[in-house]
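Predict fold of TetR/AcrR family transcriptional regulator C-terminal domain-containing protein; 193 aa.
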Amino acid sequence: MNRQTVVTEALDLLDDVGLETVSTRRLAKRLGVEQPSLYYHFKTKKDLLAAMAEAAMAPHATAPLPQHGDDWRTWFLDNSRSFRRTLLMRRDGALLHAGSTPTGALDRLRHKMAFLVTSGVPEQQAQMAMLASSRFIIGCVLEEQADADTPDPGDLPDDFPALDHEAAFEAGLALILGGLDQHTAAPGAAATP
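Predicted 3D structure, encoded as tokens:
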């Protein structure tokens, strides 16, 4: 048993039972070990959850970074959609990710910020847009994943509109991008990072 095996099994357990039911006792039983042996790899459950969150984000964390000459608007939309898709890959993915610190992804985040700034987005607006979009996406996915346990839409009153999570996400993302677009420099007047 190694650290990676523990994280992989913990993520599988998450998918099976949900975040609220994940425990080191259940994980140890699943691995066929005594619970204290998990503490060799992770001092606390919080450390384990942080490693799970980092591993769950791997598909987004390994997506191609923006390159000089890329359209920042297209990249911003693609990046946001990649983040959402990744959170949706795991049961309670947004809940697992919420509050985690992206310590392993700081260089990638700096690259993304520098890309936005050199594309003409003022640094403060780029920071706020990345933060706002991240929180918006986490909130959207939290709601979408919570809806998996809600009643059948047929049980709702006739005048209650059905929610299309994809359409709601795209509409909100377009609003964030539109607001950010209003703060960008004129074409060809790129700021320096």
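Residues 186-193 have pLDDT under 50 and may be disordered.
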